[in-house]
Amino acid sequence: MFYIIGLGLSDEKDITLRGLEAIKSSSRVYLEAYTSILMIDKDRLEAFYEKPVILADRDMVETQSDEILHRADVEDVSLLVVGDPFGATTHTDIILRARALRIPTRVIHNASIMNAMGACGLQLYNFGQTVSLVFFTDTWKPDSFYDRVKENASLGMHTLLLLDIKVKEQSEENLARGRKIYEPPRYMSIPTAISQLIDTESTRNEGILTPSTTLAIALSRVGGGPEHERIVAGTLEELLAQPEERFGEPLHSLVIVGKRLHHLEVEYAGEYAVDRENWRRVAREVYGCALE
């Protein structure tokens, strides 16, 4: 059996009992280590699961899956994924490859940012399409995400932005020369994300993102408990003015608030606001939310 097992969002104890049983029965256990990161070291996973864990990077998962799937038709093999297994298309692809080889597969679900984002107080059924925001460079500033935000905004829906991470990436020079030298990991911060949003708005100039009146909520390490989790709400302008350390450690996500805003959402998220009175004012005057 080939298992893909969600680990949840925080540490080794977020595993489900069903997931833990599958790990215990597996002859090999891999940890997918590039679409997201766990908040703890691999050593803690190995100690808790009482199993060695093999790190599986992008190359192994995407181009060397035969190594992972080897003998999975006659013994149990597990691939561990931060969050939920279906949070990335990579995991769908490896399941399809396993099925093509007639290997039995089983998915064991867990919490992911796609449902845990409700911690900020916005209701999950008021979210539209989720969007990934990648690091801009001097020569590459993709703005396709803007169209998704615009579509969501036209329906009054909230938008979850997943901020870019760069793990085991090569520089253009090293890639061209075929050198297996990797850049240090980078994780997009909330200020960087907002700066890129404002930069894109200034180019597109369609009025979707107005720094002084677009409400947003920054999320960090959701599910990590009060010592790790950070939620900060405000206008884009207010969030950009905050010191970077206020947003906590990566991974970060950002929610753009849609106009279909319920008064209970305003009240709940207002507890995390930089300026609660301004949060309520913008919600009332710009978003048309009826507040008591």
From TrEMBL:
In the N-terminal section; belongs to the precorrin methyltransferase family. Belongs to the diphthine synthase family. S-adenosyl-L-methionine binds at residues 9, 84, 87, 112-113, 163, 222, 252. CDD domains: DHP5_DphB. Homodimer. SUPFAM superfamilies: Tetrapyrrole methylase. NCBIfam families: dph5 (TIGR00522). Keywords: Methylation, Methyltransferase, S-adenosyl-L-methionine, Transferase. PANTHER family: DIPHTHINE METHYL ESTER SYNTHASE, DIPHTHINE SYNTHASE. Pathway: Protein modification; peptidyl-diphthamide biosynthesis. Its EC number is 2.1.1.314. S-adenosyl-L-methionine-dependent methyltransferase that catalyzes four methylations of the modified target histidine residue in translation elongation factor 2 (EF-2), to form an intermediate called diphthine methyl ester. The four successive methylation reactions represent the second step of diphthamide biosynthesis. It is an enzyme of class 2 (transferase). This is diphthine methyl ester synthase. It holds the Pfam family TP_methylase. Residues 1-175 form the Tetrapyrrole methylase domain. It catalyses: 2-[(3S)-amino-3-carboxypropyl]-L-histidyl-[translation elongation factor 2] + 4 S-adenosyl-L-methionine = diphthine methyl ester-[translation elongation factor 2] + 4 S-adenosyl-L-homocysteine + 3 H(+). One of its GO terms (molecular function) is diphthine methyl ester synthase activity. GO terms for biological process: methylation; protein histidyl modification to diphthamide.
